[in-house]
Structures are given as C-alpha cells and as structure tokens.
Design a protein that fits this description.
Layout: E1 3-8, H1 16-31, E2 35-40, H2 46-57, H3 63-70, H4 72-87, E3 92-95, E4 102-104, E5 113-116, H5 119-126, E6 130-134, E7 137-139, E8 145-147, H6 153-163, E9 168-173, E10 194-196, H7 197-205, H8 213-221, E11 226-230, E12 238-241, E13 253-269, H9 274-283, E14 292-294, E15 301-309, H10 313-326, E16 331-344, H11 354-364, E17 371-375, E18 378-384, H12 388-400
Helix pairs in contact: 1-4, 6-8, 7-8, 11-12
The structure holds adenosine-5'-diphosphate, aspartic acid and magnesium ion.
Aspartic acid binds near residues 42, 47, 73, 151 and 152.
Length: about 400
C-alpha cells in the first residue's frame, strides 16, 4: 500500500462535471489500495473573483482580511469534492489548512510554510478515509488564516508529500505535463518526459506557471518526485526529479514573464558607491532586483537600468525619488511595457553559441533586445511587451523545429 498525494488545480474542479471527474480519479487511486490525500485549489476563476470583490469594498484592505476572503475559495472546492466522493459511496473528509496542520509565517498573502503537522490527516487515513485538504492556506502562530501566494496550492501538495513521506506526488492540471513552451501559446510545443528540479525551478521562476516555483524548491529540498499530468486526458505526464534523462537536450524550454518593470536612472555620477547606495535603498524595502545593466561612464556620468516585479515599480519610484534628486541624477524612467523572455537548459553549460542562437531568432523576427542576463542554465532578454508572444514562438522555432 502506498501513500499518494494528488493535487488538482482550479480548472480541474471548475464545475460539477469536473468535480465528479476528479472524484473518479481519486476513488480509482483509492480502489487500488492506496492511502490518498487530495489537495485542491479554488474553482476556476474564484480566487480572481474574490480579489475583485474585496477591491470593490476596499482596495486598501489589510492583508489579513484579504487572506480571510480569498481562503474561502478553497473551502468551497474541498467541500464540493468531498460531497462528490461521498456520492460515489466512499469514506471521505475535507480539511481546511489549519485542520491539516499547516503552520505558516505571518506574512499575509505570501506566507511561507513553517511546518506541517499531519496528525489529523494520519488519523483520518487510519480510518480509511480519503482526505481532501484545502490548498493555498494555513494558519499563523497568532491563529490567523494565511495564504501562500498565487499558485500556492502546488506548494501545499508538496509540503504534505514531504511531511508524510508520500510515495508519489501528482500535480493534475489542464495540460498534459511540462512543455518546451506554454502549449496554449505555442501549439507545436513538446511535452517533456522528464525535467530536473533545477531546470523546472528556473522555468517556473521565469514565468512557466504550470508549477509554482516554491513547490519546486521544496520538492528539490526534500527530494520529492513530482508527476505533472492532465486531469482530463489519460496520458503519461512529466516527471520532475533530481536528474533528468533529457540532459543532452540543449534547452528544455522557453518562458515568458510579462509581470516585469524596467527602471532606468540616468546621469548618475560615475564614481564608487552610487550603485551600492541606490540598491541598498531597495534591499531595505525587500524589493528584489533582477537584471541590471550599467552603461560605461561618459563625461563623469553613467546610467543604470534594472528590472523589478511590475507590482513593486511604484515602491521603487518612491524609494529612490529623494536619493536621485540629492545626487543630481538627470532622470528616472519606469516602464511596465516590457517582457522577459528566457531559455532554460542544463545543456547550455557545455555548449557555446546558445545565446547567439537565441539572439539570431530575435533578429530574424526583428525584435529589439533591451537587456540581457545569463547564468549557467538560462539566458534572459528584456524586450517590448507587445513582441513577447512573437519572441517566444520565434525562439521556440529556432531551438525545437525538426
Ligand atoms: P492549475 O490551475 O492546475 O494550477 P495553472 O493555470 O496554474 O493550472 O497552470 C497550468 C497552465 O500553465 C497551463 O494551462 C499552461 O497554459 C501554462 N503553462 C505555461 N508554461 C507552461 C509550460 N512550459 N508547460 C505547460 N504549461 C505551461
Ligand atoms: N487558488 C489560488 C490561486 O488562484 C491557489 C492556487 O490556485 O494554487 O492562486
Ligand atoms: Mg497553478
């Protein structure tokens, strides 16, 4: 007998028919003699709708109350799924995050899981119940409901799998696995048989939303193999694990992130200490800076451009305003009309010319590159947002056309 954790995303439980479809997958797994813990997200667009409802009442509401509101989405889906499983004639119980033992930090709307104490889950499994757990939520040490950040149910599932030493952790979604690009945008994207944690972590961080990046981080840390597969089509999915057979593949995927802002500070004095002082103003506010580009000094002045998450752009502007005036910099320009396109692959470490191939694809498509960043297993470029989809298609074509 094995312990299997199965996670179903919002589209997999979007309506009654889909809820019964999930109930059938779960009960088939149970019928094979397994203990089954199911983690579910809110139905369809419920989380977006709840956020919009909250904003209608008070766009400046406290994060505590926002968490109280959005966590309701998962309460609906766990109870509906449990009702469907009951109807099929199986023993089942639904549990909220706190009942399932999720203790988190108290940073509301982006809480981190501190510990999972699955005593209640174990007790229910011992009674031969199927256990349905609300993803995305937990409780802080102040007994307040918290949520883990968008897409956080993946992390809930991996955390349970880690805490309970599950034999398998399956992430069911609305596509058949992890592809070489978003299959909804690039129709000839290829499904990967497997992918390493490191590559998946980069892809997820750089915009491939099929898995939440924190779930991959946790899977790597606790060595939990993940299987990403479709809840609608019976087909082998993608295995995410330490070592991938695909190591010989030059790149494993292309990702797009349009949630980016570019900030340029123009006319900074070209002498030591200015970059340090500027970026320390951002780090004290916990603002992560991604790509950084500095021009060569000319006439005693230089320019520095960098990218941040789009929703932090206003904070950057207010954090730097006084400093920029004090040092006599000429201007600060901010744009959210940009996108970051990345290629990821363990194979590029040992192959020259990968970046060149990517740049050639962009040149062929007449797309201008604003900034470039590289690491051992990725190359990212910043381009105009309007060119983003065209860029992904052109780069994908260059690397994956047969
Ligand atoms: P869920 O609701 O199941 O958590 P998400 O919407 O969060 O599902 O993630 C699945 C979506 O991720 C897919 O519908 C697909 O459009 C998108 N996606 C982006 N990049 C990729 C990729 N490389 N491989 C597979 N899906 C991807
Ligand atoms: N319902 C949450 C969201 O929409 C969590 C999740 O789907 O994983 O972000
Ligand atoms: Mg998701």
């Amino acid at each position: 007998m094995s312990l299997i954790v199965q996670k179903f995303g919002g589209s997999s439980v979007a309506d009654a028919e889909r809820v019964f479809n999930v109930a059938r997958i779960v009960t088939e797994t149970y019928d094979k003699g397994n203990d089954v813990v199911v983690v579910v997200s809110a139905q369809g667009d419920t989380t977006d709708d709840l956020i919009a409802k909250g904003n209608e009442i008070n766009p400046n509401a406290s994060k505590r109350e926002r968490d109280m509101l959005v966590s309701a989405g998962e309460q609906i889906s766990i109870s509906l799924l449990a009702m469907a499983i009951e109807k099929l004639g199986y023993p089942v119980i639904s549990l909220l995050g706190w009942q399932a033992g999720f203790l988190t930090s108290s940073s509301h709307t982006s809480a981190r899981i501190r510990r999972v104490t699955p005593n209640r889950i174990r007790k229910e499994l011992d009674k031969k119940c199927i256990v349905v757990v609300a993803g995305f939520q937990g409780i802080s040490r102040y007994d307040d409901i918290t949520t883990l950040g968008r897409g956080g149910s993946d992390t809930s599932a991996v955390a349970i799998a880690a805490a309970m030493h599950a034999d398998l952790c399956q992430i069911y979604t609305d596509v058949e696995g992890v592809y070489t690009a978003d299959p909804r945008k690039v129709p000839n994207a290829k499904k990967l048989q497997d992918i390493s944690y490191d590559e998946m972590l980069e892809l997820a961080t750089l915009g491939a939303q099929v898995l939440n990046n924190r779930s991959v981080e946790m899977a790597k840390k606790y060595n939990i193999e993940l299987e990403v597969l479709s809840s609608l089509v019976k087909a082998p999915g993608t295995i995410v694990k330490e070592k991938s057979k695909m190591e010989k593949m030059l790149i494993s995927g292309v990702a797009k992130d349009t949630d980016v802002a570019r900030v340029s500070v123009i006319g900074i004095p070209d002498s030591p200490g200015f970059a340090f002082k500027m970026f320390s103003k951002l780090s004290t506010k916990n603002i992560n800076v991604d790509i950084i580009l500095q021009s060569i000094g000319r006439d005693g002045k230089k320019d520095i451009s960098f990218t941040v998450a789009a929703d932090r752009a206003d904070e950057v502007k207010s954090a730097l305003k006084d400093y920029i005036e004090n040092i006599g910099a000429k201007d600060m320009v901010c744009s959210t009309e940009v996108a970051k396109i990345s290629i990821v692959g363990a194979g590029m470490e040992s192959h020259a010319g990968v970046a060149t191939k990517m740049f050639e694809a962009l040149y062929d498509a007449q797309i201008n590159i604003q900034m470039i960043a590289t690491s051992e297993i990725k190359v990212s470029v910043l381009i105009d947002k309007k060119d983003a989809d065209r860029a992904v298609t052109a780069i994908h074509e260059k690397f994956f056309a047969e």
